[in-house]
Amino acid sequence: MSDFKNYEIDSQGKEMLKQIEDELPRLISRNHDSHGNREYEPNSILDAKVRPLLVNLQLSQHLGYTVWRISNRITIQNKTGPGYLNPIRVSGSPSLNPGGQQQPGWYTYYPDDTELTPELDCIFVAKRRD
Predict the structure, then answer these.
(1) pTM for this structure?
(2) What are phi and psi of 55, to 5 degrees?
(3) What is the pLDDT of residues 55-97, one digit of tens each?
(4) In 3D, which of 66, 69, 65 has the Cα closest to residue 119?
(5) For residue 74, which of 125, 124, 117 has the smallest C-alpha distance?
(6) How is residue 40 annotated by DSSP?
(7) DSSP 8-state secondary structure symbol assigned to residue 81
(8) Which long-range contacts (CB under 8 A, 24 or more apart) does 58-63 make?
């Protein structure tokens, strides 16, 4: 198993994250999984806010993203390879196991399958599916 790594976001990135958080109430749910977690519908306004953040974090090349509301424990399966979890807004003490507690202003590299406990809105960043 490879190492999970946590990275702090710089002040410019934190401001970008705040702009994404401000957009959350306007997002529409598109998919609900069997656990009650939901994926938000991508749109041009959201993309205009997330893409600059990914550039700031140097995660933009060949990677895609999805925005989710995680309300119940899930297993994140790396179907396309390692990924990154970027919390936008949290309630309680969400965490990756392994990987540690999740909080806005930090993001986590996860190389392997991992458990995510709720509750948070977050951006998953990973290689796009072909």
Answers:
(1) 0.93
(2) -65, -45
(3) 999 997 789 999 999 999 999 988 888 999 999 999 999 999 9
(4) 69
(5) 117
(6) E
(7) S
(8) 59/84, 59/125, 62/127, 62/128, 63/125, 63/126, 63/127, 63/128
